[in-house]
Design brief:
By secondary structure, the chain is α+β, with helices and mostly antiparallel strands. The protein is built from twelve helices and 38 strands. Helix 10 crosses helix 11 (306-319).
């Protein structure tokens, strides 16, 4: 199960038990409050409909002096830290994260770095960060801070672009360090520092990360600090991954996806619909093993919007009787998959909690095969009745009858006689390749727009095993340190060896039949189904080009190109493939991600390079390569099938285990944690 790798990570993280506490709490309140709340999404009587309302300075106002005049109206007369804490508790939330400073540079604490703050510059004359901190500590809630790495008020923080992921100048970086030092030394324990936007150099991210942990070792640092110097991954705004991650992760979402700060003209709809929407999102995140950070935007006076209060309270009321199915749980054994109920697992592994939606009423529910005997099914919430219940060869099935729409979900507890795990298909071959493994994912990012699904390791379920195995690797893996986990028994391995051989591939058995090219923009890690899924393929969205293994084009920043090759293998073979690219590359084989990397442009102009070894079965295959340019305006790629490749071989002593067993190979787990392992050329012969 995935908790084997989580346990490994837990022992390595410097934050220690703080990691388990942070992730186990599952559900937090996010608060966007500042000068933008006074404007409420309106400027000079006209709603500003471009962008989020908390960014109205750049999207609607345009002049900093006019925006700064909002300080005269910022009285925070209805802002009550105690009321916010009480609402979070009623909502079932275990911590609060508040915007200490957003992109506009206005600070909600009394800082010595600038008078542009809620104490010195406004009639409120209050340190709101201090008030929230004190209320959280008194109530026993976790206390966290949002901190924008960009600052539209600081004079040495240039440039200001529309995408908000700008470089941080040296003077601006020093300014940020001073402010973070204040926040971490004046308000007691800070459980979470939620950095946002900007595009830092690796040295800047490292320095900020080290500063946080030197001042507060238990403070969890968010992935948006950049360059993977973080304790947990953060998805894009309002993003809900359909894949599982082995690193701690979080989805930050707003009550209204359109904005985070208060918007007076927001169409709010029905409370009932919003409760159902956000409840589903919460359960989806928890089922995937993540943590849910749900945002509200108080009015300019600090008053909580009645609609948002009602939504949070109703979610809290719904969760009250089933807390054991949410907090401190393990993720669903099958992740988040279409057609299967959302689920969590009790800490001891013996109870499976199912969240069966009302619209599955009267339909057969069939779960994947599970090891162990189910002792009973208990209904924790809902009026529905279980009928036609049975378990055959590990497959549990039942029907839910009489469920009520107002229940949203029927919550069931399935009790087992042992810690449960799925009955997984074993790998019958004696040689294991990454393409055939279960990939272990994290979410890597240089900055917001470069976030993608990174592969930090692999997991197999071998049916065969011997006391000795041979690990083979290419020159790209040579010298790396990896970790081998066999049935929970771990060992460190240095990929060093003098024993090598040449591997030859019969390239004449491969036929490259077609090359199609499509264009898109957006974030690097976004993989729309229309580009990646066979059933969504529409030839009208692609350009047909002669088959070529090189590609070059002048592009705008933030551009992507998809190269879609169709090839046929006359026999089973292993294809070594060298991919060179300018900035970002994601590679998929038959819809499965097999490799990914993104780098800043090299001053030398040389291309980055990775070598993959792809085991291909006889028949037709689709090779998809996504290229992405974050900063430069020239995109280049070269894809080279290699007839010969040199492999190094290392003999490994394996512990005695029963077959089948779980085998994991991961990178050396140290900061930056979420960076990919780049072990694409390895194989294990058992």
């Amino acid at each position: 199960m995935r908790n084997l790798f989580l346990a490994l990570l837990l022992t390595l993280l410097s934050v220690g038990s703080a990691w388990a506490d942070w992730l186990g709490d599952k559900y937090s309140l996010f608060i966007h409050y500042g000068l933008y709340s006074v404007a409420g999404g309106v400027w000079q009587g006209t709603p500003v409909k471009r962008g989020y309302s908390e960014q109205i300075l750049t999207f609607g106002v345009g002049f900093s002096d006019e925006y700064e005049a909002l300080t005269e109206q910022f009285n925070a007369k209805d802002f009550s830290a105690q009321e916010i804490v009480q609402l979070a508790q009623r909502a079932g939330m275990r911590s609060i994260v508040i915007t200490s400073k957003h992109h506009d540079g206005f600070c909600l604490w009394r800082t010595a770095t600038t008078p542009y703050n809620s104490y010195d510059a406004t009639p409120a004359h209050r340190d709101l960060v201090g008030e929230i901190a004190a209320a959280c500590h008194q109530a026993g809630l976790g206390f966290g801070l949002y901190f924008s790495l960009i600052d539209w008020h600081y004079p040495y923080a240039m440039p200001f672009s529309s995408h908000n992921a700008d470089p941080i100048t040296p003077l601006h970086h020093e300014y940020n360090l001073k402010q973070v030092r204040e926040l971490l030394t004046q308000y007691g324990a800070v459980d979470e520092l939620w950095f946002d936007m900007g595009s830092m150099q690796q040295s800047q991210s490292r320095e900020m990360y080290q500063l946080v942990h030197s001042l507060q070792p238990q403070c969890m640092v968010s992935g948006r600090l950049g360059n993977d110097f973080a304790d947990f991954c953060v998805m894009a705004d309002n993003e809900y991954p359909d894949y599982s991650m082995v690193m701690p992760w979080q989805t930050a979402a707003s009550i209204f996806d359109e904005t985070w700060g208060y918007r007076s003209w927001q169409e709010r709809g029905k409370v009932e619909d919003k409760v159902q929407e956000k409840l589903q999102s919460l359960l989806s995140v928890v089922s995937g093993g993540g943590k849910y950070l749900l945002n509200i935007g108080p009015m300019g006076s600090g008053k909580i919007v009645d609609f948002e209060r009602e939504v949070l309270q109703r979610i809290g009321n719904w969760m009250a009787p089933i807390q054991q199915a949410v907090y401190q749980t393990q993720p669903s054994p099958w992740g988040v998959k279409k057609g299967l109920p959302l689920a969590t697992v009790a800490p001891d592994g013996k109870i499976l909690y199912l969240f069966v939606p009302y619209n599955r009423e009267g339909k057969d529910i069939v779960l994947p095969p599970i090891e162990g005997k189910m002792l009973r099914i208990q209904t924790l919430r809902g009026k529905g009745k279980i009928t036609q219940q049975k378990q055959e060869k590990g497959v549990i099935s039942f029907t839910l009858e009489g469920a009520a729409p107002e229940d949203y979900y029927t919550v069931l507890a399935l009790h087992f006689d042992r810690p449960l795990s799925l009955i997984t298909p074993t790998h019958n071959t004696k040689r294991l390749y990454p393409l055939e493994a279960e990939a272990l994912y994290a979410h890597s990012q240089i900055d917001y727009y470069t976030g993608y699904r990174s592969i930090v390791g692999y997991r197999w379920y071998p049916q065969h095993g011997k006391q000795k195995a041979t690990l083979s690797f290419t020159k790209e893996e040579k010298g790396k340190n990896i970790q081998l986990n066999i049935a929970g028994k771990k060992q460190e391995i240095a990929l060093l060896s003098a024993d090598s051989s040449l591997y030859t591939t019969p390239l004449n058995a491969l036929h490259w039949q077609q090359l199609l090219v499509a264009s898109s923009g957006g974030r690097f890690g976004t993989l729309p189904a229309k580009f990646t899924q066979k059933e969504e393929f529409n030839p009208e969205q692609w350009r047909t080009l002669p088959v070529s293994f090189s590609y070059q084009e002048k592009v705008s920043q933030g551009s992507a190109r998809y190269l879609r090759y169709t090839l046929t293998a006359d026999r089973d073979l292993v294809l070594p493939l060298e991919i060179q690219f300018s900035e970002g590359m994601l590679c998929l084989v038959d819809g499965t991600i097999v490799a990914g990397a993104i780098y800043r442009p090299q001053e030398s102009g040389r291309l980055h390079q990775h070598t993959l070894r792809l085991p291909l079965k006889k028949g037709s295959h689709i090779l998809l390569v996504k290229l992405y340019n974050r900063e430069s305006r020239s995109m280049e790629a070269r894809i080279t099938p290699l007839q010969q490749i040199q492999l190094w071989h290392k003999s490994i002593q394996l512990p005695a285990v029963q077959t089948p067993f779980t085998l994991e190979v991961t990178k050396e787990m140290k900061p930056p944690f979420a960076s990919p392992a780049h072990l694409y050329g390895i194989d294990l012969a058992l």
